[in-house]
Amino acid sequence: MPNNGEELTDHEYIPLCVLNTFFALTAIVLNSVTIHAIRKTSSASLPKNLRVLLLNLAFSDLSVGLVVQPFYIIYLTFSFESQEGDNLQKMETLSLVIGTEFLCASILGVLALSVDRFLAVYLHLRYQEIVTPKRVVSILILSWVISTIISLFWITQEYYYYFLSIFLTVFFGTCLTTIALLHCKIYSVVRRHRFQIAAQQVQGSGQTEDETRATIERQKSSVSSAFYIYRFLLACYLPNMFTEFALLKIKERILMIFHKYTMTLLLVNSCLNPLIYCWKLRHIRRTIRMILRNIFVRGTVVQAAGEVES
After folding, report:
1. pTM for this model (two decimals)
2. Per-residue confidence of the chain (310 residues) as pLDDT tens digits?
3. Residue 6, by phi and psi: left (phi above 0), alpha (psi -120 to 50) or beta?
4. Are 240 and 138 in contact (CB under 8 A)?
5. Terminal C-alpha separation, the chain
6. Distance set, CA 129 to CA 123, 134, 135, 139, 215 (Å)
7. Phi and psi for 46 in degrees, rounded to 5?
8. Burial class of 149 by CB neighbour count within 10 A (0 to 12, 13 to 18, 19+)
9. Is 260 exposed, middle or buried (0-12, 13-18, 19+ CB in 10 A)?
10. How far apart are CA 302 and CA 256, in angstroms?
11. Per the count of CB atoms within 10 A, which of 53, 90, 130, 243 is most buried?
12. C-alpha dihedral over 123, 125, 129, 132, to 10 degrees?
């Protein structure tokens, strides 16, 4: 999160604004296309629970580009123009509240996706009976409520900034650790299923073997995509978390500027998830390809018709 405002120079302010503007536009375009593609993908190709979880994550990423980064750029502008007093304080608080809400919602969305993928491979055939779409939606609503409550704590940052910084860093660290443990458990369960398939091949129980193999293959791409989402999340969040801890002890200017770049890296994560969906989930990739083809073909037809009329 942004720290107490310090003056920025031209060579510090301009690159930050350019980077945030570029990645904000990228996040808006990529996540908008991804949301449309997820909605267009058939239910047979994309299970309802996974669809809801991916839509939630794409929406939070879209909100980062649409809301969080513009406010962060405005905050940087206030710092650059050496705004003093209430204006800078209010903009910093607003930036903290908005940024915390959507970033917490994003990391909780990744946590919910990892829990869902773990239950899918662990519960096996009982998954659809236990993990219903209504329960998934309820969990996601709860995650947004928690994110909103945590973000509102920043209104009191003037008195509890030190405590809130530690709490938020520990909260992110706990979520990242939990996701890592879930993926280790997923790997363990998938490995055990493979051993079961090998044993069933020896025993000749073909029907059970086919069911187990079909389930593993069906979950493979979604589990793999959840793992890559976590890896990129880790790469984007860890530098900011380490810098937050360092700033609690050291108030060097170079560290404060580096903190702003790690904040930008943290926001860049909202651009990466749509790329993972396209890479690892072939049904979404196919739908996005069809959407883009329709857009360009329609644009070409309209242009050709205009030339004919003229």
Report:
1. 0.85
2. 444 445 667 777 888 999 999 999 999 999 999 999 998 888 777 889 999 999 999 999 999 999 999 999 988 888 777 655 567 778 888 888 999 999 999 999 999 999 999 998 888 778 888 999 999 999 999 999 999 999 998 887 666 777 888 888 899 999 999 999 999 998 888 787 676 666 665 565 554 555 555 556 666 778 888 889 999 999 999 998 888 888 878 778 888 888 889 999 999 999 999 899 888 888 888 888 888 788 777 655 545 555 545 5
3. beta
4. no
5. 55
6. 10, 12, 11, 16, 15
7. -130, 110
8. exposed
9. buried
10. 51
11. 53
12. 70
Q: For helices 282-309 and 10-40, what crossing angle results, to 10°?
A: 100
Residue linked to tokens 């750029």: 73
Provide, for the chain, the percentages of residues in helix, strand and coil under a 3-state DSSP scheme, each rounded to the nearest 5: 90, 0, 10
